Amino acid sequence: MRTHTTFRIGLAVAAGAIIAGCANDTASPTSSAGATTPPTAASPTPSAVPSLESTAPAPRSPAAEPPTGKPLPTITLTDKPPKEPTDKQPNTGWVAGMVTRGGKGPCYGLIADDGQRYALYSTAGTELVQGARVKVKLETTMLRIYCGPGTLMAMTDAETIK
pTM for this one? Predict the structure, then answer.
């Protein structure tokens, strides 16, 4: 079994080398004709074969061109590091919204009044009815489980809004 795998790897390397060698050849009248017929004693003169430089200008890469328009973005340095996290943290505390996935848990779905979608997790066995308006108390969780689409949060308490 091992020799079969080694053979396949060797075959893949050989094929890659052949393809890479073919890709690096430049198209010239003698290279394509030379593969099928033996070379002749009379070779064309250098003036008879057009050079690549005389046929077309060399394309310029985008990196070689000078930048135009607005300057590149740079990192702004501050005197002191920020005291609060600069990343957007999920809301904790009480959030009101509509239940999109109900039941007795442990996973629920909620769309808050501000449009934020939450995937809630609670082992308390609280029953939430789909479509009901509720107010839930949220906390961040270290669990990495899938409770559906949205920001995963732990639900510690829930109250129905009447």
Answer: 0.47
CATH number of this structure's domain 93-160, picked from the four choices 2.40.50.140, 2.60.120.280, 1.20.1530.20, 2.120.10.30: 2.40.50.140
Strand segments (E) across 14-150: 93-101, 107-112, 117-121, 133-139
Neighbours of 132 (CB within 10 A): 13
pLDDT, mean of residues 105-126: 94
pLDDT at 145 over 80: yes
Q: Where along the chain do its domains lie? A: 93-160
**What is the spatial distance between Cα 62 and Cα 93, in angstroms, rounded to a whole number?**
50
Closest CA to 92 of 115, 118, 72, 71: 118
